[in-house]
Amino acid sequence: MFGDKIDIEWKSFLLRTEPKSSDQAKFVSYTESWLRPAAIEPDARFRVWATDNPGPTSSIPAQVAAKVMDGFAPDAADAFHWRLLEAYFSENRTISDWSVLGDLAAEVGVDRQAFLTMVTEQQQDAAKLVIDEHNSAIENGVTAVPTIVLDNALPIPGAQELESYVVWINKILAKREQ
In whole angstroms, what is the distance from residue 101 CA to residue 104 CA? Predict the structure, then answer.
């Protein structure tokens, strides 16, 4: 829709900073909250957790995997990010499991074993970057996922209707052209 008029930069924000196991029934109940954004945006494919797969134990592995993918296979990084979201919200896959993350890398055309080897080598540096981005978000008042920050100034917290984003982006683009 906007072509090269806008850039998207994904930043880390951790919902589960510390690894912990959760009660499966409580986690399934939590995922019922996904029905709200699903109702707002029909193209977003959210599914209440309906598998025996355990919920993620932490947000860190998926965030680290995404950061490693940025450097390891930059041409696949965007596809990997979207694949992570699909795997979690639509397929109910445990994206804190490194085996699952390796499978997702392979599904976007990246050598699974080479990716997991790179993760092992870069895990500490990538984790530091993830934590730094999370802390920066908190320092800048981010409290919700998603939070979209437009033009480094306008934070929009929580899931919104697509039309709302279109209006805000068009206003910023018009202001830039003045």
Answer: 5
Give tens-digit pLDDT for 33-64: 888 878 877 777 888 999 889 988 888 999 99
3-class state of residue 80 by DSSP: helix
Angle, in degrees to the nearest 10, between helices 74-89 and 60-72 = 160
In this structure, are residues 97 and 61 in contact, taking their beta carbons and an 8 Å threshold?
A: yes
CATH number of the domain located at residue range(s) 9-140 in this protein: 3.40.30.10
Q: pTM here?
A: 0.81
Percent helix / strand / coil, the chain, rounded to 5: 60, 5, 40
Taking the C-alpha atoms of residue 170 and residue 172, their distance in angstroms, rounded to an integer, is 5
Number of residues written out for the chain: 178
The three-class DSSP label of residue 28 is helix
Phi, psi of 128 (to 5 degrees): -65, -45
> What 3-state class would DSSP assign to 73?
coil
CA distance 64 to 75: 17
Three-state SS letters, 87-142? HHHCCCCCCCCHHHHHHHHHHCCCCHHHHHHHHHHHHHHHHHHHHHHHHHHHHCCC
The helix (H) or strand (E) run that includes residue 171 is helix 162-177
